[in-house]
Amino acid sequence: MPDRTLTVATYAAGASLAAITLIYVFAPTYFIDSAQPSTSSSIFGTKKPCVVGLSNPANDCFINSVLQALAGLKDLRLYLIQETHRRSRDDGHVYGRVVLLGANDEGSTDDFAGRKDLPEWKIEGLQAGIVSKGLKDILDALNERPIYKKTISAGPFVRTLEMAFRQRISRQQQDAQEFLQVVAERLCDEYHAGRRARRLARLQAAMADAEPRDSPSPATLQLGIANVTPASAGNVTDAAASSAASTRSANVEDDEGFPLEGRFESQIECLTCGFKPQPTESTFCTLTLNVPQASSTTLNACFDGMFKTEFIDDFKCEKCRLLHAVEVYSRRCIAGTETSQEEARSAVAKLQLAIETNPEKPPKGVPLPDLSEAPKRRIARHIRLTHFPRVLAIHLSRSIYDASNLSQKNSAKVAFPERLPLGGLLNQKKYRLRGLVTHKGSHHSGHYETFRRQDVPPPFSNPSTFQPSEIFSNPAITSSTRQLAVPEQRSEASSPITPVPDLLAPGSGTDSSVLSFDTPAPPQELSSPAAKSIPMALSPDSQIGNSEARSKGTTTEHKRKKRQQQDLWWRISDEKVKQASTSDVLGMQREVYLLFYELDREYR
User: Is there a contact between 225 and 203 (Cβ–Cβ < 8 Å)?
Assistant: First the structure.
């Protein structure tokens, strides 16, 4: 009896130790995973979502915040995937040859890439796409969905930048906008450099296919890349030129360009004579807007500060200067010798022709009066966006400079919307907020954080796997009808190997389910109890109504979950990650510094 009591006590003590061990080991993990439940769940219950953070060993918050914001841009990631895949599929010699001339397909010179003052080693790096590959790798790593807290380092991408520019990046307190501008312009440079290299390779392939009589020199290929005609390159036949032109035009149609690259033009108008010179077009990757010195303002007011009509006084208009010269020469026609009068009449005729054709090009051989004697006019300056980028990166400049050239931070509240409409009434574009970078601190020190929208990619599985497809079958045919047609198909088979018709071919075969639906079934099958239990007794209209009701319920539930998911954001501060809502994001009016909007699909 004492031995049995001792055995029971031993078992009880072992069970207690086991329970204590289980609680000690699994209780912390259980409470951590149970905190802040979200929509993602598993068979064991809800699980806290997680996102990859970035370590901050030496004042790297300006780098981490920009990379986290770029990781939430779908169009940028898609571009990087396509660009790196295209470079990996092309031959090595396509990007191995240095292309110095920078002219795009429309004939205008690129602002970023292809400058002749760049050294060859830098052009080789641009054509190789070093930074594009490095940025793709770091963004892919940041878009992982780990099952536990994970932190990586931005060191590999920083080393890629240092290798591309052959200089070190300072770890002092830096500006996130400057880092974003360096990365964005470098990516734009690599895009244009790779585009020109591929265009030169297509030109060489067209020349090789045309079998020229004399092989053109490398100088002819290099200088003729922008505008190639049979006259400029006499060794190229008409077939080769047309082939190169068609290939180039097809490439322009298929290529959507760099997603952060946009263009705006500046147009001035003389308020006296109404002359409008040729507008000046500029390219941008980040749009800088000045924040007005007020307690609170809006993003639309910041846009108005840049794109509103600006009036400038004391401007020397080209047309007004020519008109002034006509008046001067007209007075000489009245007074003076006969020779001077004849010269004055000839000058007036040339000036009148220049005024009617192009006032920006004064006639040659006609001396104009001194520029100081030209009349001063009042002009109006208009700036408008001509190419809307797919990803609009907005920089809110909060720097204020006083008379002593000392700078300080403008802490005005800037209200920004989640949906941003841009453009006129006839050409309006709508953008959606994807991320933002905030700054807390003074103008010379502080900390950057990132707000990034949570995205759940759509599943690749087909939700209607076991339902009839509307493409290859009649929607009115039910699955029970197809089950009746299966024995007929098997009975008709005369050999174990039968040809399978192509589903994509419209006339490849006859749908046996359609035949079985139209053909009346034998009466003995309809009178059997098994046949009565088949749901074919329901009319097709009733079955369609039931399926529509189920689909509507599923769609409503899917939309509700999608709205809840779209309202969730990540608040990322280096390796610290929290969840936030859209109201929390829109409330960061005093700290907002960089905004990232994506163009809606329907406006592209």
Answer: yes
Token pair 């209209």 is at which residue?
541
Let me know if 61 is a catalytic residue.
yes
Q: Measured in Å, how far apart are the chain's first and last C-alpha atoms?
A: 87
Domain ranges, residue 58: 53-203
Q: For residue 419, which phi and psi values (nearest 5 degrees)?
A: -115, 125
pLDDT tens string 72-83: 999 999 999 999
**Whether 71 and 199 share a structural domain:** yes
pLDDT in tens, 157-198: 999 999 999 998 887 768 899 999 999 999 999 999 999 888
Instruction: Please check whether residue 484 lies inside any domain of the structure.
Output: no
**Residue 319 and residue 325: Cα distance in Å, rounded?**
10
Q: How far apart are CA 510 and CA 410, in angstroms?
A: 74
Active site residue 50: no
Domains held by the chain: number: 2
Report residue 55 CA to chain centroid gap. Answer: 26
3-state secondary structure of 128: helix
* Structure-block tokens of residue 583: 């109201």
Number of Cβ within 10 Å of residue 59's Cβ equals 14
Annotated catalytic residue within 93, 317, 447, 558:
447
**In-domain check, residue 553:** no
pTM: 0.70
Residue 422 zone, left/alpha/beta (φ > 0; ψ -120 to 50; rest): beta
End-of-domain residue from the set 168, 203, 238: 203
Helix/strand/coil for 230? coil
Which candidate in 61, 270, 302, 317 is catalytic?
Answer: 61
Put residue 153 in one of left, alpha, beta given phi > 0 → left and psi -120 to 50 → alpha.
Answer: beta
Mean pLDDT over 315-320 rounds to 93
Confidence label for 396 from pLDDT (cuts 50, 70 and 90): very high
Give domain status of residue 309, yes or no: no
DSSP line for 392-407: EEEEEE-EEE-TT--E
Structural contact between residues 478 and 595, judged by C-beta atoms closer than 8 angstroms: no
Helix H, strand E, coil C: the string for 384-395 is EEEECCCEEEEE
Integer CA distances (angstroms), 109 to 114, 194, 282, 287, 293, in order: 8, 15, 11, 21, 38
d(CA 251, CA 206): 14
